[in-house]
From TrEMBL:
This is Uncharacterized protein. Keywords: Membrane, Transmembrane, Transmembrane helix. The lineage of its organism: Bacteria, Bacillati, Bacillota, Bacilli, Lactobacillales. It comes from the Bacteria. The chain crosses the membrane at residues 14-38, 45-64, 70-91.
Length: 118
């Protein structure tokens, strides 16, 4: 019995096998998050090049944090920064008023002291 195998299909299957092995090694090396971002970035370069910069920034964040956990960290940090900023504005405004009042009081006491000496 003779089995006919197309050499073209055999070579194509071989290249798919090499691509699958390369992707597996790549996935084990950089992780699932970066492999996902690489796929999205390559699709973005082809379909919507204007979105490449935001995806690049997300990829940098994923690279340094090791996962997508930097996104909720940024939201949490932004929230606390806004809360602390509001508290700072309230405190600095009150202290500014107190300083102005103390300056007026000092000027008034100084001017009263000069009037009594005359």
């Amino acid at each position: 019995m003779v089995i006919f195998v197309s050499i073209k299909k055999l070579v194509q299957t071989f290249w798919w096998l090499i691509a699958a092995i390369a992707f597996y090694i790549f996935l084990k090396t950089i992780g699932l998050s970066m492999a996902f971002l690489l796929t999205i970035a390559l699709l973005t370069l082809y379909f919507a090049p204007a979105l490449f910069v935001p995806i690049l920034l997300i990829a940098i964040g994923v690279h340094f944090s090791g996962d997508f956990s930097f996104i909720p960290d940024l939201f949490t940090s932004a929230f606390w920064l806004m809360v602390m900023g509001i508290i700072f504005l309230i405190v600095s405004d009150n202290s500014h008023r107190l300083v102005k009042r103390a300056e007026k009081e000092a000027i008034r006491t100084t001017s009263i002291g000069k009037e009594t000496r005359k």
